[in-house]
From TrEMBL:
It holds the Pfam family Glyoxalase. Gene3D superfamilies: 2,3-Dihydroxybiphenyl 1,2-Dioxygenase, domain 1. InterPro entries: Glyas_Bleomycin-R_OHBP_Dase, Glyas_Fos-R_dOase_dom, Glyoxalase_1_CS, MMCE/EMCE_epimerase, VOC_core. It comes from Haloterrigena salina JCM 13891. GO terms for molecular function: dioxygenase activity; lactoylglutathione lyase activity; metal ion binding; methylmalonyl-CoA epimerase activity. This is Glyoxalase/bleomycin resistance protein/dioxygenase. It comes from the Archaea.
């Protein structure tokens, strides 16, 4: 089994996404770069593609969140329901979910208030500026 290197999320505005992930989730940018040319265009099968990338730290295991703004931008293919086939979400752990919830910026609209689930954990779902689903779960640290 390979180790997880990163989780990639395509965004429409890299600067806006970076602000959200830094301010709302407290992630730190560790690298920013742009890829253009035949290699990236062939790899993603999009003629004349350019990708603007940012890597953010997402914990102590080394996993990174990779935000990508592509030119040309693709069509919106975002599933609207969390349980829809193809839908994805990224999960983060916090020691105090209620405190995290109360500190959310005013422009973040949670899908619901924190909920205790059958296994005893509290969870919260909300969306980033592009509609990507974020889950935050309370864990003991």
């Amino acid at each position: 089994m390979s180790d997880t290197h990163h989780i990639g999320i395509v965004v429409t505005d890299l600067d806006q996404a970076l602000e959200f992930y830094r301010e709302t989730l407290g992630l730190e940018v560790v690298d920013e770069f742009t890829l253009a040319g035949e290699g990236i265009a062939t790899a993603i099968d999009v003629d004349d593609a350019t990708g603007h990338f940012a890597h953010l730290t997402a914990g102590t295991d080394g996993t990174r969140i990779e935000l990508i703004e592509y030119e040309p931008a693709g069509d919106d293919a975002h599933p609207t329901a969390i349980n829809q086939r193809g839908a994805a979400h990224i999960g983060f752990a916090v020691p105090d979910l209620q405190a995290f919830y109360e500190a959310l910026p005013a422009d973040v609209d949670p899908i619901s208030q924190p909920q205790r689930i059958e296994v005893g954990l509290e969870i919260l779902f909300f969306r980033d500026p592009d509609g990507n689903v974020i889950e935050v779960v309370e864990t003991e640290e």
